[in-house]
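Hey, does this match?
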Amino acid sequence: MSLAKCRTGILVATWLATVCMFSTVADDTPVTAAKTADAAPLPPLAPNMVLLYYGFDSRGPRDWSAEQLRHYVGYHEQRGTDAERPTDTMFDTVLWMYRKSSRGNLFETSASATPTRQLDWQECLERLFVPDMQLNALEQAAAEVERGLGRPVRVWVVLTLPYPDVRIENWRESSEGPAWDFRTDNEDRMAALQWYVQAALEKWRAAGFEHLELLGFYWFNEGHINLRKAEDVSDEALRNDVPLIRATARYLHGVKLDGRALTLSWIPYSPYGGERRAVVAELLGGEPAERVDYLMVQPNYFFPRWKKQKSDLVELVRNVAKIPAGVEIECDGLLARDAEARQRFIDYLEVTASEHPRWNEMPAGYYQGLRTFHDMATSEQLAPLYERLHEFIVARRAPVTHKATQEAKP
C-alpha cells in the first residue's frame, strides 16, 4: 500500500481544564508566557514524536549538540557535501528521555535497580537546560533549519516525568520538610510529580525559547503494574498505576501554558497491544479530563531478544488500530550491521501504513536507541532508510483542522 495513498483524517483529542485533585503542592497557578493565548500555536493532532535519551549510562554522560540535532529537525538534501541544505522539516515533536542518573539510579522501575529520589530528579531537570546542549541545542538547530527553509520552524517538546517508585520511603532524603513516602498510597507520589512539573515550568518560562513549544509530559514506566505486594498493600487498586496515571492527566490538563492545557503521553510495551489492550483502552476512555492524550504501543518486533515474527507485528498493529491508538517505530544501531534488521525497520513503516486504517491520525513514536537517525542521515549505507523515514513522516502530514471546542476521541 503506497504511503501517499493511505487514508487521511483528523485525530480529535480533548484537553479539558480542571482543578487539581490533590492539594499537596501549594502553587499550581497557570503559567503565563510572553506570547498571548490568541497567538499560541495549536498542539499537533498526530505528532511524529522522536525519543532522545540524555543523561548517563555505563559510558558516562550522554548529551546532544545542535549539530547532532539538525537532521532530526530538518530534512536535508545533498547531505555530506558543501551544498547540503534543509528542504523540509522532519520530526515535529521531541520526547526527552532520562534513564539513569549520575548516581546510577534508574528512572524507570526495576526490582533489581535502585530507584530515583529528589536529587536525581533535580539532576534530570538541570541537564535539560544546560547551555548549548539538549533543549538549548534543539533551539539552535530549529533556528538553523528555519533560516535554511526561509519559513517559521517550531518544535514541540515533551519532558519525561521521573517515575515515583513505590519502594521509596524518603524521597526528599532530607530531615527538613515532609519525607514523602511512596510505599503505601499515591498522595505523596502525586505531590512529587506536581513538584517536578512546576519546577520544569519555571525553568521553561525563564528559558524564553523562540522555536520550542512545550507540549506536555511523558509517563515513563512502560507497564501499569507497580512493585507493591499484596501482603503489604491490601487495596488492589494501589498495586497498579492506572489511578495515578489518570490523576496525572487530570493535573496536567488543569495547568495552562500559553493558554492551552498541558498533555500526557505514554508508550507502553507490546503486551499493551495484546493481552493488556484493555488497559490502553481504559486510559484513552472514561472521563475526558483523565485521558492520556498521546498513546503509542511498542511492537518490540525489531529486537532479536523478543523473537517476534512479521505476523506478530501485523497482529499488534491491527489490535492497536481497534483501540484506536498509535504505534512506535523502532530501531537501533543494529541497522548498521545487519541487513535483516534493516528490513525489519522497513516492515514497521509498511505494516503500520497498510494495517492501521487511521495510522496518520494517531500519534507515532520513533525509538532509535541513542543516535541511529543521525547515523541514517550521515551514513551512505543507511541513507536509503532515512529517505524512507522522511517519506513516512511526510505521508502522515494529513490536512487537519482544529475545532474550537475539541471533541472526545472515539
User: Anything to note?
Assistant: Confidence is low (pLDDT under 50) at residues 1-38, 403-410. The chain has one domain: 3-26+41-395.
